[in-house]
Amino acid sequence: MSVEVKERQDVRKIVRNLVQKKGHEKAELIPILHEINKTLGYISDDAIQELSKGMNIPTSHIYSVATFYRMLSTEPRGRHVIQFCESAPCHVVGGRLVWQKLTQELGLSKGETSDDNKWTLLTTSCLGVCGVGPVMVIDNDIYGNVTPDQVPEILSNYE
Amino acid sequence: MAYFRSHVLVSVDPECVKKGAYDLMDTLQDELVKQGLVDEIQVLETSRIGDPTTDGPDLMVYPEAVHYTNLSVDDIPFLVEEHFLKGRVAQQYAQEIKALSDEELNAPKTKEVRVVLKNIGVIDPLNIEEYIARDGYLGLGKVLTEMAPEEVIQLVLDSGLRGRGGAGFPTGLKWKFIRGYEGDQKFMICNADEGDPGAFANRRVLEGDPHAVVEGMIIGAYAAGATHGYIYCRAEYPIAVRTMRTAIEQARNFGLLGENILGTDFSFDLEVRMGAGAFVCGEETALMASIEGQRGEPRPRPPFPAQKGLWAQPTNINNVETYANVPQIILKGAEWFASMGYEKSKGTKTFSMTGDVKNTGLIEVPFGITLREIIYDVGGGIKDDKKFKAVQTGGPMGGCLPESYLDLPMDYEALAKAGSILGSGGLVVMDEDTCMVDIARFFMEFTQDESCGKCTPCRVGTRRILEILTRICEGKGKPEDIDTLRNLCDQISENSLCGLGKGAPNPVKSTLKHFLNEYEAHIYEKRCPAKVCKSLIRFEIMDGVCTGCTLCARNCPVNAISGERGQTHVIDPDICIKCGICKQLCPYDAIEIK
Question: Does residue B131 contact residue B209 with C-beta atoms inside 8 Å?
C-alpha cells in the first residue's frame, strides 16, 4: 500500500477519471471514495474539492460520508497499515496480549501513525476469520493464530 | 426443463484433453444412449477435478460425488453398467476424495444437517456448471416455467422459512407485502453485511456457493415483482465480493440474469455494492442509505422498506442465508423444509462457533437442538477440558447464557425469552477463565464504537455504561453502580431507533442477571474471580516451589523480580506491570495469580 505523495494536478486527474468511469450518480459516491482511498492512501481535501465539482455534490456531504466509514480515511496513513481485529472471538483467545505487544513494539496507540510514516496502527471489526484468531492484517496480508512472541518477527517482514 | 438423476462432470483440463478426455466423453454419451439412460444422466464438461497428471482423464459423478480416475475409453461400458444401471460404485476406478483441509468447516458431525452449506467445499464456486450439476438453477427453472408469483410466495410461507439475519420475520410474508405495494421499480437486496464479530457463515456461503444466493434472489425477485437487485457486501470480505461478481457475470452469460431470463418474459439484474466498514450498515435502513451514497444511519420505521425502501421504492431485504435456502425449498417442497426444526423455527441454522471450544468453525444444525448438544456433541466440549462458564449467542447485541441454560433449544423465541438473541448465529463459548465483567465491558466497547451517533441514548448511554464497567474492572466500582447500569440498560433499549441501540445493553443485562456475583466481587471485595482484571490481581512467587533459577528475573521487562540464585525470588508489586511473562516462562509453575 505504499503510496507516494501525489501532486495536486495528479489528484485532480485521478478523481476526474474515476468520475468519468463510474458516472456521477450519487450512488457511485462510496465506490469512488473507495478507489480514491486505495489510490492515494487517503481522501485528501483536494480530492474532495474535485469530486464535489465532478459529481455536483456539496463538499460537506462528501466529507460527512468519508468520515462516517471506518475504511475511508481523511488523514494520511503510513506506508504500512496494520489492522488488528478487536472482536470478541479474537479477544477471548488471547488477542489482548497480542495487542499489548503490538502497541509496545510500535510505540503507537490505536489510530496513530508513526513519525517516520512507516506504520499506521488501526483496529478493525471482525474479519470473519475467527477460526484462526487472534487475527491481524498488514496491508493485504492476513496473519492468523498470532501470539505475542510472533509480533516482532511479523513486523520485521516490512520495510 | 429436464430433470437428471445424475450428472457426470468430465474434466477437460488441457492435460486431460491430451490424454483423451473428449474421446471419453463421446464414448460415455454413446454408451448412455445405448443403455437408454440419456434422459437420466447428464454429461457436462468441467475444469480440473483431481491432479490431471496423475488422475487424468477423470470424471466426477454427482450427487454421489464419486471420483473416477485414470479412465480409458474401454473402461466406459463397464462403468456405465455398474454405476448407472446397477447403482454400484465401480471400486476399481473410484478414488477416495481427499479430505479438505479447512480450519473453518470440518466434516459434518452426527447432529449436523447441511442444507445451506451442502455445496461449500464441494463445488468450485467460480464454476457455474458445478453448481448446475448439483441441481443448481433447477428451482429457478421450475418457478419461471411452472409457477405464478403468488404460488412461490405461498410455498415459501408454507415452508416456514424465517429471516436468518436475526429478526426472524417470515420470508414469505415479506415477499407478499412488497408484491402488494405499487412502485415505479421494485428492488431486491441481499444483506451481506455480516458485521457481527464471530459470525462468518455468510462469508462462507458467498465465497463457497455464490450461485445459491443469486438463484434465491432471482426467485425472490420473481415473487416480489422486482427488476433490479443489490448484494450489499462488507468491504472486509474482499474474496466474497470478487466471487459474487464472478457468479453474477456467469449467470448473465447463461441467460439466468438480465433480460428475458430462461426465455421467459421475466427480467432481473443484479450488482454487488461494497460497504466501507460501518457495522450499523447491517441494519436495513442504514444499508439502503449506504447504497444511495449517504452516511449509513438508520431511519425510523414505518414506512418499512417493502413500502418505501431504496430511493423510496418498494424494496425487499433478506439475509444471505435466507436466500440460499430458497432454491432447495422450491425443489424439495415446503413439507420437506418444515419437517426440520422446532415449533415456529423451521429448517436449519448455521452457527459460527468460536472461543474456548475444541472444534471451532462453521456448523449447520436443525432448529431445536440444544446448546449443550452444539457445544459438547458438535463442538467437542471445552478446550483443555476446562469448565464451561458461558456462551454468548447472536453477536454483540446478544446475551451471555450460563450453564443452567445449556438445555435451551435453539429457536428464535426461546433465546429471546432467555434474554439473548439468535442474531446472525455467532456463538462465543467461554471457559472458567473468562471474567464476565470484562466481557461485558468488551462488548460495550464494540457497540460504543459502532454506534452511529444518531440516537442520544445509544450514543451517550453506551459511553456511560462503558465508563462504569471500566471503573469496576479497575477496582473503583461503587455499590450504586449496579442500579445505575440496570437503569441505563433499560433507557437505551427503550429509546433507540434501531436494533443496534435496542440490543446494545444485552451483554450487560444478561451478565448482571446471571453473573451478578462477579460484579459484586469486583465492587465490594475488589477481587476478580476469574483473575483477568489487571488492577485486581497480583503475581506472587510461591515459597518452596521456586528453585531460584533466575529465569523470571532475567526476563521481567520492568525488573520487578529480585532474589539470589537458588533462593526463592520475590516480585515487587509496586513495579510489576502484570504482563504475565514470568508465569508463562516459569518451568516450575511457581508463580500464582492472587
Answer: yes
